[in-house]
Amino acid sequence: MANMAVSRIKREFKEVMRSEEIVQCSIKIELVNDSWTELRGEIAGPPDTPYEGGKFVLEIKVPETYPFNPPKVRFITRIWHPNISSVTGAICLDILKDNWAAAMTLRTVLLSLQALLAAAEPDDPQDAVVAYQFKDKYDLFLQTAKHWTNAYAGGPHTFPDCDSKIQRLKDMGIDEHDARAVLSKENWNLEKATECLFS
Amino acid sequence: MEQPELVQSLDLPSTSSLLTRRAACNQKGSTKAKGVSLEEAGSDGSEVTTTSSSTSLVGGNMPDSKVASLDSTGMELEEINKGNERESKDESLYDCNICLDTAKDAVVTMCGHLYCWPCLHQWLLTRPNNKVCPVCKSSINKDKVIPLYGRNSARRDDPRNRVPPRPAGQRTEPEAGYPNFGFGDGFFMFFGIGGFPFGLLTSSINIRERRPPVPGRYRGRNNGQTRNEDEQTLSRMFLYLAFILIAWLLFA
Fold first, then answer.
1. How many helices (H) and strands (E) does chain B have?
2. Do B99 and B34 lie in a common domain?
3. How many structural domains comprise chain B?
4. Collapsing DSSP states into helix, strand and coil, what is residue A27?
5. Which residue of B has its CA nearest to A4?
6. Partner B contacted by A101 (CB < 8 A)
């Protein structure tokens, strides 16, 4: 079976390489090791979303039982999204769990993830904090997501206000990532964030 | 993979069959639409040979003397064409949807999706509670997949025995909810509270309901229609009986 997993991954790899998405630079895939069990994917943030202009890197682990069981996929690039953990990058997507079908491929998985970025599902969250912000303070969510895209995925939108707040916390000796995470969680309220960090 | 066969059936010298097959691969590898290239190849034998001009052969009927020159360049050509063959294989219409290779022991589901039987079997084993087609998520069943026998498939032993004629693609949603409270065709079960006449009434009303036709079961037998008529008369009789009973209850 392991043999089948490898031969299928090889085919899928070719399929992605020949697909038109690669021409449009919207998805990418590369090998991590020679045994074809671990790959690295990359998806572009879809247009008209806060993730536009960003490149998000994914870790793809292919189980021995592939394609009968789904690949294990996780975001390496940090991202602010209701269905993706802002801490671990774990993804909540049905096709990567119960709704996996053996006819799905790496290409369809990457495209599904791109679709997930465009259509968040806050009622079935992976990151409850992000989902709450998405539902409660949507404008702030957009700003935070754009800021994260800029900070981690090379997105175009900068927010001097956010940067200055992060700098303030950094001056207090806080790690930049931690500062960003806490501020995002506390809706960019510096006082609350400080309280949260030092209490 | 019917294309090579078709080309081979042209009246070319026998030794050239290898070449023509390669030529067919070349054509398939090109950007031309499949149907068009097939027609071209079929219309004129010389067309086929000219596409393989890299072998330094001039088109037309191949004289045997020139076949030798093919062999000298054959090795190189073979390598090129292996690549082409591979590529055309990747785009094949007859690839298993699970292993993505040409389907071995091919079976097709009722929804029309092709698999290797070992692949599909493994998939069904992986999801014993949720047997759905990996492509369209239609509900599938081991007993309802159809094996496909190509002309040259050596193994004829059926993974599952019966082979009904291949039907048109039909899509059914996965079963959800509770099964009907009924036992097959023609028998319904009722739950109810009430005295005898009311019970009778409910049953007669139920019998009046038209039963959905059972596909396949009575097809081909003529008694289906008469049966239905008999039932309707019977149900009407019971209904009248029920009314009489009610009237009797009211006026007595």
1. 8, 3
2. no
3. 3
4. strand
5. B99
6. yes
